[in-house]
Specification:
The structure holds three protein chains of three kinds. Chain A is built from four helices and no strands. By secondary structure, chain A is mainly alpha-helical. The mean pLDDT of chain A is 83. Classes of the chains: A mainly alpha, B mainly alpha, C mainly alpha.
Chain lengths: 122, 169, 140
């Protein structure tokens, strides 16, 4: 089962991605959906960083004592991705707060029903 | 452990415990990232995911209310969709290179040049900072503008135009 | 929480260290893990901690709204200014080697100012978002 040891990191990534995706599509609460989105994003970080690791290497800070370094390029991409992720989360939460004030609830079913009931009243 | 935390997040309905579990999950992710030698990323994930993200979620929860409704009876459809996607992704991962393979394409194109020349060209030993601020500085400019836009967006959404706030100065 | 003595004492001990640690992470980012984003978030977290213990009005007195809003824009503006300085001094946009006679020292200067811009914007935005969420009254 050498495929297990060599691809284990990918399977963990897929599991976390699936959990995040399931939370996003199966739960109606808006805040929980946003948390699912954030879990999905962290699984993508793992997807990028795990292949960059070299066993026996060290963090990519150049120094005299080490010869083998792990790949710094995914680190740069994911650093940007983490900051963009939290920007998205902050904006999403601001929208959820406004929805709560406008509709009185943050459950997707109740909001859709309220919209259908109101017709085209603003 | 991360899998257990995530499953608990899926099942839990009390939103406060979901937020705390999300913070736990972020910390575990940061630990895994340190084990993968991604120290810069781990520091960012720990401070952003477990710190700021938890604070914002708690603030939003205070303004919104803390319990989730029961799941709808048609819950098997999203589960089926998710399982199909999992199957497709696992099938796809067989084509990816093995863990820690030095001949994988990710290690052989641009990275030897960055690792070899970063200290000589920029005088900065931390290659991640050198790439982020100098070699790929344009992307970091874009990221800073994204953060700025998020700030402006939140100001625009949550600003109150009437002077009704009660604050004790 | 203002009346809890343990929180007040621990807060007063920890918050200066957190701010100094943020500055350490910022300036040591060249030699170890760190850099603008981490430092900005840690600095914002220190002020948020202060706001949680001593109350939002106290934090608003410490770091007023106009200062935070200026910080949000000033950091991105600083980054762009470094880019245009490179343009004005003869290179392309965001070239650092033209900023000094010695190209490597020019890189150092460019990276220093750019990371400072990132620090200012990130800490300003995080703090402003916290102020907006925490300052809003809960309705019905």
């Amino acid at each position: 089962m050498t495929a297990f040891a060599s691809h284990y990191s990918y399977w963990i990534t897929v599991l976390l991605m699936a959990a995040g995706l399931y939370i996003m599509i199966a739960r109606g609460n808006l805040v929980k959906k946003l948390i699912g989105l954030s879990i999905f994003q962290t699984s993508v970080y793992l997807l990028y960083i795990a292949p960059g690791k070299l066993i026996g290497g060290t963090a990519p800070i150049v120094s005299e004592a080490y010869k083998v370094y792990s790949n710094p390029l995914p680190h740069v991409l994911i650093l940007t991705a983490i900051v963009v992720g939290i920007a998205t989360l902050a904006l999403g939460l601001a929208i959820v707060v406004r929805i709560r004030e406008a509709y009185g609830s943050i459950e997707e079913d109740e909001i859709v029903a309220a919209d259908a009931g109101r017709g085209d009243r603003q | 452990m991360m899998a257990a935390t995530v499953l608990a997040i899926v099942v839990q309905r009390n939103l406060f415990s979901v937020v705390v579990l999300a913070g736990v999950y972020s910390f575990l992710m940061a630990t895994v990232l340190v084990a993968l030698d991604a120290v810069d990323v781990a520091m960012t994930e720990a401070s952003v995911g477990a710190g700021i993200s938890t604070v914002l979620l708690l603030g939003a929860l205070y303004l919104c209310g803390g319990e989730e409704a029961k799941p709808t009876p048609r819950a098997w459809l999203p589960l089926a969709v998710t399982l199909v996607i999992v199957g497709a992704l696992v099938y796809g991962t067989h084509g990816l290179p093995a863990f820690s393979d030095p001949l994988a394409p990710i290690h052989t194109h641009v990275v030897p040049r960055y690792l070899g020349q970063a200290l000589a060209e920029t005088g900065v030993p931390n290659v991640v900072t050198a790439v982020l601020a100098s070699y790929r500085g344009y992307d970091t400019l874009g990221e800073t503008v994204v953060v700025f836009t998020a700030g402006i967006g939140v100001i625009a959404l949550l600003r109150r135009l009437r002077r009704g706030k009660k604050e004790e100065e | 929480m203002r009346r809890e003595p343990v929180l007040r004492v621990v807060g007063k001990l920890l918050i200066p260290y957190m701010l100094v640690f943020a500055l350490y992470v910022q300036f040591h980012g060249d030699f170890g893990p760190g850099g603008g984003f981490q430092a900005g978030v840690i600095a914002a977290a220190a002020i948020i901690f202060y706001a949680l213990i001593f109350g939002l009005p106290a934090a608003r007195r410490l770091v007023p709204e106009w200062l935070v809003e200026t910080m949000v824009a000033a950091g991105a503006f600083l980054y762009l200014a470094v880019g245009f300085a490179g343009l004005a001094l003869g290179g392309n946009f965001l070239d650092y080697f033209v900023l000094d006679r010695d190209p490597v020292a020019g890189q150092h200067r460019g990276i220093f100012w750019v990371e400072l811009g990132v620090l200012i914007t990130v800490s300003g935005v995080m703090l402003k978002i916290f102020y907006m969420f925490a300052g809003r009254q809960r309705e019905g």
